[in-house]
Every structure is written in C-alpha cells, then in structure tokens.
UniProtKB/TrEMBL annotation:
It comes from the Bacteria. Keywords: Hydrolase, Metal-binding, Zinc. This is Creatininase family protein. InterPro entries: Creatininase-like_sf, Creatininase/forma_Hydrolase. Its cofactor is Zn(2+). GO terms for biological process: riboflavin biosynthetic process. The keyword Metal-binding applies. GO terms for molecular function: hydrolase activity, acting on carbon-nitrogen (but not peptide) bonds, in linear amides; metal ion binding. It holds the Pfam family Creatininase. It comes from Gallintestinimicrobium propionicum. The keyword Hydrolase applies. SUPFAM superfamilies: Creatininase. Belongs to the creatininase superfamily.
Length: 249
C-alpha cells in the first residue's frame, strides 16, 4: 500500500509523488441524509475510496474531504430546506418536505466556488497540474463550471470521474442513496451499510432517488461500478498528462 493521503505525506514524499504524476484528487463530500441505511458522509466516503485506489495505481495525492457543498434550497417562512429535504420527481417514495435527520452541509454555490478557486491557486503553487473532483452531485456541477477558468487562471486541468465515463449505468455516484450509491458503499465500506435500519413498511425509505437501495443493490454491482470508473479515470488522467507534457516540449 502506497501513501497517497496528502495530509500524511512528508515534504519529500509529496515532491516525489508530484514528479510521478502531478494530480490531486478532491473528494466533494457532504454530511447529508442518504436514507436510513447509509452514513451521512456517503458522498465523500465513496469518492475518497475511489481516489485512494486510483492514486495507488496511477500516482498523485488525495486531498481531505470537503464536507460543505451547494444544493437546491427552498425557504418557507423562517425555515430552510435543502436538497433531498424537498421531494422531487426522481424520488423513490413520495414524502412531505421536511428536514431530513443529520443533514448539515449546505453553503451558497458562489461561496463554494470561491473556496475551490483558493484551493486551485494553492495546489497550482505546490506543483499540481491536474485536479480531479468528485462526490456530491451539485458540488460536481459547481466544480465543472470552473473548467475554463482553472485552465486560464491557474494552469490546471480539472475534470471529474464522469468526464471519461460513457456508460450511464456504471457512472460513479449517479443517484442519491439508490442502488448505485448503496452498491458502491457496500463495495468500498461494507461496514457502514445497515439495511436493518430500514423499516418493514419502508416508511423511512425516503429522500432517495434512483433504483431501490435494498432490492437492487449488491457489493458485486458496486465493484463493477468501481472497476469501470477506475479504468476510465486512469486512462483520462494519462491522456491529459500526455497532452500537458506534449505542450511543454
Ligand atoms: Zn450521495
């Protein structure tokens, strides 16, 4: 096992990893209700576990998980509701607007993007040339919006685990606590999934978008998603790095 977590590296180890592959991985997390059966930090956990495995194979450093992220917001008198608090068309079961238990992650998109800009400036200064961000859906979109700016202002190529993945079914974290995300957590951190928390009548199986998390999930499917994503992401990183080197010569 290689050391890949940024915070654990000695300075010379960091320099060496940058020489091998100047890529930093940014897990875009949340602390957000992911059904009764999944951990609140499911978004960051899934992307971090993917990135650790990719970094061990292709090089680079994995940044700490960001736990704040943007999402849709709905204000009703004094109360505010975020993301999956609000029922949407893709929801597995209909439910009333409510504050889902444990969610604590929301910040304005503009503020989040300013935070990303600071991270880009600092990483560029440290020698990073590629930043891969992935995790919470709305954070991925806010990150992606900065692609042109990251290149022009900070000399960074930025992309996500979706950029080079074409198979819709196997895209990493493409639902909310449905069969896709549940299967991924079953594959990478099986100790954190507890189907015993789902009530018999499924009355607490709310705030979920995607296929049924109990009936349609499996560690095997999670591993299939993981392996597909690792393969497409690694070839994407190698392609981008080759382009960067070709441009230098
Ligand atoms: Zn999620």
């Amino acid at each position: 096992m290689k050391k890949v977590l940024y915070e654990e590296l000695l300075p010379e180890e960091f320099v060496q990893r940058m020489q091998e592959m100047p890529v930093a991985y940014l897990p875009l997390g949340t602390l957000e209700w992911h059904g009764p059966h999944m951990p609140l930090g499911a978004d960051g956990i899934q992307s971090k576990e993917l990135f650790v495995r990719v970094a061990e194979k292709v090089g680079g450093v994995v940044l700490p998980i960001l736990f704040m992220g943007p999402d849709r917001v709905f204000h009703d008198h004094e109360k505010s509701f975020y993301g999956m608090d609000i029922n949407t068309e893709g929801a597995l079961h209909t439910y009333h607007v409510q504050q889902l238990k444990g969610s604590a992650y929301w910040l304005e998109k503009e503020l989040f993007q300013d935070y990303l800009r600071s991270i880009f400036a600092q990483l560029s200064r440290a020698g990073v040339r590629i930043v891969v961000g992935h995790g919470h859906g709305p954070s991925i979109h806010a990150f992606q919006e900065l692609t042109k700016e990251a290149e022009e202002k900070y000399g960074l190529r930025i992309f996500t685990a979706w950029t080079y993945a074409e198979d819709e079914k196997l895209k990493y974290q493409n639902d909310h606590a449905g069969a896709n995300e549940t299967s991924i957590v079953m594959a990478v951190r099986p100790d954190l999934v507890d189907f015993g928390q789902v009530k018999e009548d499924e009355s607490n199986l709310i705030g979920i978008a995607g296929r049924h998390p109990v009936r349609d999930s499996s560690a095997a499917f999670g591993n299939e998603i993981l392996e597909y994503t690792m393969k497409t992401l690694i070839s994407g990183i190698e392609k981008e790095y080759k382009e960067i080197k070709d441009r230098q010569n």
